[in-house]
Fold this sequence. Notes:
Layout: H1 4-26, H2 30-41, H3 53-56, H4 61-103, H5 108-117
Amino acid sequence: xxxxxxxxxxxxxxxxxxxxxxxxxENWTFLxxxxxxxxTLTTIGFGDYVPGDSVMNVDSTDGQYKLxxxxxxxxxxLAVLSMSFNLIQEEVVxxxxxxxxxxxxxxxDDEEDALEGS
Length: 118
């Protein structure tokens, strides 16, 4: 089992890394870069902030490098975010089962029967 705190810390670091990169490349504030990273990686995608001048300049070597780095950041970020949600979900389910046992909502036998049935 992975504790949720390191998962959330790593996720926060990854979003902050993207915020720093995009704020430097696009002349956005750090908050705007963080907003773009969060909205993009959670696949909400409002489209109000998009990488523009620096990433879309694919004619130059620098623009191609930034475009490639942006694509890699987003693809890895989607995997990191999905993995983080899954790890935290497992912890929340285990906590909910334990709380239900403590409150007497379910018995230990009920959980074993449910696990065998699935």
